[in-house]
Amino acid sequence: MSDTAAIEAKLKADQPRHVDILKRFVAIPSVSTDPAYRQGVADAAAFVAGRLREAGMGEVAIHPTDGHPVVTASWRGAPGAPTVLVYGHYDVQPPDPAEAWRSPPFAAEIRDGRLYARGASDDKGPMLIPIAVAEAFMQADGRLPVNMVFLFEGEEEVSSAHLEPFVAAHRDLLKADFTLSADGAQWRADLPSVTVASRGICALEVTVRGPGKDLHSGRHGGAVANPIQVLARLMAGLHDDAGAVAVRGFYDGLDPVSEAEVAAIAAIPFDEAAYLKEVGAPEGAGEAGYTLLQRNWIRPTLEFNGVHGGYTGAGKKTVIPKEASAKITCRLVPGQDPARIVDLLARHLEAAAPPGVRVSVKRETGGAPAYAIPADHPGLALSEDVLEGVLGRRPVRVRMGATIPIGDIFKRVLGIDTVFFSFATVDEDYHAPNEFFRLSSYQAGMIAWARYLARLGERRG
Amino acid sequence: MSDTAAIEAKLKADQPRHVDILKRFVAIPSVSTDPAYRQGVADAAAFVAGRLREAGMGEVAIHPTDGHPVVTASWRGAPGAPTVLVYGHYDVQPPDPAEAWRSPPFAAEIRDGRLYARGASDDKGPMLIPIAVAEAFMQADGRLPVNMVFLFEGEEEVSSAHLEPFVAAHRDLLKADFTLSADGAQWRADLPSVTVASRGICALEVTVRGPGKDLHSGRHGGAVANPIQVLARLMAGLHDDAGAVAVRGFYDGLDPVSEAEVAAIAAIPFDEAAYLKEVGAPEGAGEAGYTLLQRNWIRPTLEFNGVHGGYTGAGKKTVIPKEASAKITCRLVPGQDPARIVDLLARHLEAAAPPGVRVSVKRETGGAPAYAIPADHPGLALSEDVLEGVLGRRPVRVRMGATIPIGDIFKRVLGIDTVFFSFATVDEDYHAPNEFFRLSSYQAGMIAWARYLARLGERRG
């Protein structure tokens, strides 16, 4: 085993500088879903490229795509050693609802050892870790223990919409033995874990249009269809009374889950009451007949992410609005094709339109199927060994209800698997107000990445 | 019959001045439902008081209430002549959605003989008419043909929430033979009509709260209840498949509608296709078993005026929101008490709450029951005679799907009925973007009010 003591000491000593870098990074509002933030996304890409250059990586490039740019860099000076493709993303979720933030979302504030800002945990803090570690190796040794390729995208929060064609067009640049992902938060702050599977995603937006303009709800109420009422009925019809998705074909062709997998999930220490308390929910809910972890990890879901129609300001406005709409995403499990599911839902909704309204469905592109790493992947075992050493406890293997589309993309296009090696944790309120990243995780992540790369470097071909 | 030719000529000659007064009036943003416009409401009250003073009315007063002020004035110099209580309101609906206006909502713009602005038709244009007519009589004759009391409120758009206690506390000031309302738009632009009944209203807002904060819909989807999903099911459950309200007791105790009334409605010339084309609805919709006019005039409804939850900006945000809410109003018919209906709905919604969420209902105050004027009221017959003379066609008697709470309030508290004598028409997009008032109606209304008052003055007791 390489002695990484010097590297680790250097990384610890440099923490103030790395915190400062993260502060500057999160100050860039790189919201990928909203065109209003286009410049922020471009600025963040430039920031990442600058950090890779500072770290001494070669071939640093910002690649335009049909969406937001991809930033790559590489160092291939260790012939015979393995090559890892490091993945992360520099885009972030929208800051809404802005008024719920204790401190501004795009200005870092440290409270109780946590750095609060949009993107701090997902994924700006975690993705800076491998860059910092590579920089430390270069500064200390003038070389890295393994060959490394870096790929940071700006569209993870919009389902990595343009990543697949980019990867397909840059197979040589991205050639590696496996992916080591800085994204893919750890399951819990109190239990070391490695993530071995993620659900897929697909998205659509349904709009119900009734009258040609907003109408007075007294003058016209009873005469014409109310788009909100129709939308509510359409939405309500998407689940049955037992919480299952009530769209024909939704569950068709699911890959069977083995008894061993079910038993493994059941064996994971999980305090349901503590979880519900943490998220502030009075009770669990969802598809009947499954445990909470099963519903969250190995069952597909259909979630309403937003609904809007009519007057939503203070007081009341007696209006029949001309339209109402809802944003929907599904989380998918192995066997479900995103495009097929979107199509099923769209046809179901369009067919359910009653007289008096027009129903239209916007099929969002960029869905992703579910992904799982083979249980015997050596990069996975190494991550478990390193985490045990750094965190003092053997990690459990967990699944992820969320989606990281790259697992599927790298497998299909490059033929390589993805090991999730992130130091975010799921309680850090990413995708919500007051997102934060634990500074202790920032440092522990650097130690762990240094050890991982060093131990991987011992495995020469 | 009095010769009002001189008064009419004066009113016609003064039209440019009256249009200018209306322009200044609509420039005051007197949105009663939104506290942000509080100053605008106060400014509008002051404007009305100023106009009443200019018109030569006495005892002009701005009365504070627990909500927005009431403006009154009177002239009682015709002993033995009837006394009319003139009603109107100076508050307006919110301008939302602002982006749908062709010209700014609070700056009048005249296009094709129509004055566009929020409140132009409801009710600022119509309520200026009786003031202009009284002014013309005072300037020409130094007196009015009848005794007049003016009451202009600032809370009509919020169900006249504080009007009843005001009226109860000012019975002497408001003593009159009947109310002549400048509010209560005519049914159609192409068919003279008098309104003989209006539906009541009650309002509530239902909020579904799930997790304590917005959650990532992948990380938590399937584990906890989604408030939007629960809200949609609650909303969908409020109507049955035939479009009737599915809340036990909602239809209890309705006053029977006579066969004669049903026949009268059926006899009214009404082109359903033309109506639907005008409002831009592909088809009619609503409670099965009733005609469109029956559904709109003599059947109660439950309408969703607004719904909101989660992310509604551009693109998508994969969130399970912590809450979602909907604004609801019901239009009521004779026999339905607003407070009882709100209570029924609130208890129904609260009882329907599934595990995993909390459902709360905000019971809005200030509902109003339905109202109808006796068919043989002499003030009603006079309005028909005058309209026939001014518009060249005998008006039909129609009902109104909307609510003017004063009908019920004046009847119960003062014991007097209300004749609706408004010159707005229902197609003028009040409660919607691009509200307008026909300048031809502004002038015709002044002629009609002058003739009405003159003929009423001939009826000395």
UniProtKB/TrEMBL annotation, chains A, B:
Q: Name one GO molecular function term.
A: metal ion binding
Question: What Pfam families does its record include?
Answer: M20_dimer, Peptidase_M20
Where's the Peptidase M20 dimerisation domain?
A: 197-356
Top-level taxon of origin: Bacteria
| The entry's keywords | Hydrolase, Metal-binding, Protease
GO biological processes = proteolysis
Is-annotated flag, keyword Flavoprotein?
A: no
PANTHER family xref list: BETA-ALA-HIS DIPEPTIDASE, SUCCINYL-DIAMINOPIMELATE DESUCCINYLASE
The record ties this protein, via NCBIfam families, to: PRK07907.1 (NF005914), PRK08201.1 (NF006053), PRK09104.1 (NF006579)
| Protein's recorded name | Peptidase M20
